[in-house]
TrEMBL record:
It comes from the Eukaryota. This is Alpha tocopherol transfer protein like. One of its GO terms (molecular function) is phosphatidylinositol bisphosphate binding. One of its GO terms (cellular component) is membrane. Coiled coil: none annotated. CDD domains: SEC14.
């Protein structure tokens, strides 16, 4: 057996598969860069990526995983490891820590990451809570459009919305283009009420923001908030303490001023709901992309995970991911914060 195939997880035989299990994934093909010349140059300038050293860098990270985290159950092919190297500008130590955090966060929040597959989230997808716009921004960033008003709390818990966010991020980050360009978030808070906002307290905020900043290989280039009600001041006051300065500086609050939004996101790439000329907002296309990826998600997120406390021991988990003790106090605090906005 080759060294590369030895690095891949062992899967059960076809005869022993449960309904969620699939035959082992075929061995990933040898890495072939899909970046254009322009993106290769951008990666070199912004991410310190040198094409001539790319495979050497991936091998160095692979060696570190095998030496320092032999029990870490992870893919080790070049394409997968490059996600983490690019997210940390090819700093080996930081890329390794991000990889450990990525798996540690998944294990520490099973309500979100267990059984994470499109077919389990059809109701959330159909609601239109989240979609990806068909056009990228001028920098090549995919745009995630989040509409909290589409969520009916009595239908399912807020963690289902978070599951759809991570489902989408996992799909997007498969693209090398996204690994280099990053993403933009467009959040429409029109119609968000006090009762709905209270579900997103500090306890949840710590988890979501912590994973996005320190536990997932994604580059968030901007967050545009539109139609935010007065209550959003309370929501942002909850979020801001957990944001790193660089990310906090990438938040833009536009209110109902779509002209302000269009300075950053041109009309030509936006649906008419946001003053754009790209037709009506369509959620069907992105939902179809996710549902077509069912097999990949089943293989990655729906298999039995052996106990391995050493993974969580090495993970620098964001505060709030390891304990539920703060939950009640957090909810009381957030309601007080939100009421003060009225």
């Amino acid at each position: 057996m080759s060294e590369e195939s030895d690095s891949l997880r062992t899967s059960p035989s076809v005869a022993s598969l449960s309904e969620n299990e699939l035959p082992p994934a075929p061995k990933p093909p040898g890495y072939v860069c899909s970046l254009t010349e322009e993106l290769v140059a951008k990666a070199r300038e912004e991410l310190q990526e040198k094409p001539e050293w790319r495979l050497r860098d991936a091998q160095a990270l692979r060696d570190m995983v095998r030496k320092e985290c032999p029990g870490l159950r992870t893919a080790l092919d070049d394409a997968f490891l490059l996600r983490f190297l690019r997210a940390r500008k090819f700093d080996y130590d930081r890329a390794l820590q991000l990889l450990i955090n990525y798996h540690g966060c998944r294990r520490s929040w099973p309500e979100v990451f267990q059984n994470l597959k499109p077919s389990a989230l059809k109701e959330v997808l159909a609601s239109g809570f989240l979609t990806v716009l068909p056009h990228t921004d001028p920098r090549g960033c995919h745009i995630l459009c989040i509409r909290p008003d589409r969520w009916i709390p009595s239908s399912y818990p807020i963690t289902e919305n978070i599951r759809v966010i991570y489902l989408t991020l996992e799909k997007l980050i498969q693209s090398e283009e996204t690994q280099v360009n990053g993403i933009v978030i467009l959040a429409d808070y029109k119609g968000v009420s006090l009762s709905k906002a209270s579900h997103f307290g500090p306890f949840i905020a710590k988890k979501v923001i912590g994973i996005l900043q320190d536990g997932f290989p994604i580059r968030i280039k901007a967050v545009h908030i539109v139609n935010e009600p007065r209550i959003f001041k309370g929501i942002f006051a909850i979020i801001k303490p957990f944001l790193k300065e660089k990310i906090a500086n990438r938040f833009f609050l536009h209110g109902s001023d779509l002209n302000s939004l269009h300075i950053n996101l041109p009309k030509s790439i936006l649906p008419k709901e946001y003053g754009g000329t790209a037709g009506e907002l369509d959620i069907a296309a992105w939902n179809a992309v996710l549902l077509a990826s069912e097999e990949d998600f089943v293989r990655e997120f729906c298999q039995p995970v052996p106990a391995c406390d050493s993974i969580l021991g090495r993970a620098l988990l964001p505060e709030g991911l390891t304990s539920d003790a703060q939950c009640d106090d957090s909810m009381r605090a957030v309601k007080s914060q939100l009421y003060s906005c009225y």
